[in-house]
Amino acid sequence: MTALADIRRDTFASLSNPNFRLYFGGQAVSMVGTWMQAVAQAWLVLQLTGSGTALGFVVALQTLPVLLFGPYGGVVADRLDKRRLMIGLQAMMGALALVLGLLTVTHTVTLWQVYLLAFLLGMNNCFENPARQAFVLEMVGPADLRNAVSLNSVLVNAARAVGPAVAGIVIAAGGLGICFLLNALSFVAVVVSLVRLDVAALCPSPPVRRSPGQLREGLGYVGRTPELLIPLLMMALVGALAYEFQVVLPVLARETFGGGAEVYGFMTAAMGAGAVVGGLYVAARGRTGVRALSTSAAVFGVLIAAAAFAPTLWLELAALAFVGAASVGFMATGNSTLQLGADPSMRGRVMALWSVAFLGSTPIGGPIAGFVAEEFGGRAALAMGAASCLVAAGLALLVARRRSAAAPEPVPGAA
After folding, report:
1. Pseudo-torsion of CA 165, 170, 176, 181, nearest 10°?
2. What residue intervals traverse the membrane (predicted)?
3. CA distance 64 to 61
4. Residue 321 falls inside a structural domain
5. What residues contact residue 222 under an 8 Å CB cut-off, 6+ apart?
6. Is residue 6 part of a domain?
């Protein structure tokens, strides 16, 4: 019984913090709405165009601002109060979902409007992502950071399991537009949670004073710190070609398995369910560092390859559950490695580069994955993602070993 209590305490350690508990609850509501919108938006684009390439393009538009302006978003996060910045940006995200919902329920939505709103949401994300990720440390402190990051990943993926299932029901009962409207409403929960936080209990990083060259300073800092640069380069490759599930899975559901929105929802839910289990494991027993991240990337690649060759839908769903578990392990390990390794004055900029590597790589990888899925099938697109994970893991281990071999030998008897 004591051992079970210890495991439970280690797994949910960060939730003993009242501020994080309140924030976690608000995020739980909002994330379900976000996944509902992701499913509905993907299906809306397929209804309007029937094109996997168009689906890849809308995802690219949503992430292009992160690629173009993401590093500056980190500069802003280092300069401003992160909580107040997040309140404004989360409210704006709710407004964008409301507009898309109203356009859809009134049957006036067109493809260019979906493109525009996706781009505006991406502009919001390039400032919100680094602020949100750096803010976690200000709530829980270094000791509970890895646990909090892992539980956040569990939350995202639990929502991935629940949100698509709810979306399928809502789409069948009321149509795509209701999903967007419910997502708009869900942002109220996260804004309220941020407003109600006990500000006195936070440990904010001192705001960086505005000065010329701060973006260049952040890039230089990462460039001369291999412990930060290697994980970022790994995520750039894996993020571009492996994390394109919202592009690949709809095509896989429709073309490979002959299903509709419900099959796509099941696939997404299977990944989310697996990620919950994987995230809880990482929360209790996860490690950080380049070697741990390389191992995680290799496992991720092998499991994506298994999903690429699964012969039946049931085996595909089982494989995707394992893919979900591995994906959250890779994400949480990389995120924690960067936050714990970054100087507090640089944390916003470092996490902005993490967002650029993950989301900003999608404008490149999204259309590629969409093209491969459309021309060669969803299985080929998954296999491409698996290869990217294995290449990233191998290159990172090679660099780490060369750095270890180049390190000077300790002098016997030296003080």
Report:
1. -100
2. 20-46, 52-72, 93-115, 165-197, 218-243, 263-283, 290-311, 317-338, 350-373, 379-400
3. 5
4. yes
5. 228, 229, 232, 349, 350, 353
6. no
Contact 284, 148 (CB under 8 A): no
The domain spanning residue 283 has which CATH number?
A: 1.20.1250.20
Is residue 91 domain-resident?
yes
- The residue range of the domain holding 188 is 15-196+215-405
The pLDDT assigned to 164 comes to 74
- Residue 6, pLDDT > 60, answer no
What are the residues whose beta carbons fall under 8 Å from the beta carbon of 368, sequence distance 6 or more?
A: 56, 240, 241, 244, 384
Of the candidates 138, 140, 141, the one whose C-alpha atom is nearest the C-alpha of residue 205 is 138
- The terminus-to-terminus CA distance of the chain in angstroms comes to 47
Q: Rounded distance, CA 148 to CA 95, Å?
A: 28
Is residue 206 one of the residues assigned to a domain?
A: no
- What DSSP string describes 325-374? HHHHHHHHHHHHHHHHHS-GGGHHHHHHHHHIIIIITHHHHHHHHHHHHH
Give ∠ CA 391-279-204 in degrees, rounded to 5. 100
- Asked if residue 102 lies in contact with residue 162, where contact means CB atoms within 8 angstroms, the answer is no
Question: Is the pLDDT score of 253 beyond 90?
Answer: no
Residues 276, 259: Cα–Cα separation, whole Å: 25
DSSP letter (8 states) at residue 256: I
Tokens of 113: 């409007």
CA–CA separation, 398 and 95 (whole Å): 47
- Tally of domains in the chain: 1
Highest mean pLDDT among 339-348, 369-378, 384-393: 384-393
Residue type, 171: I
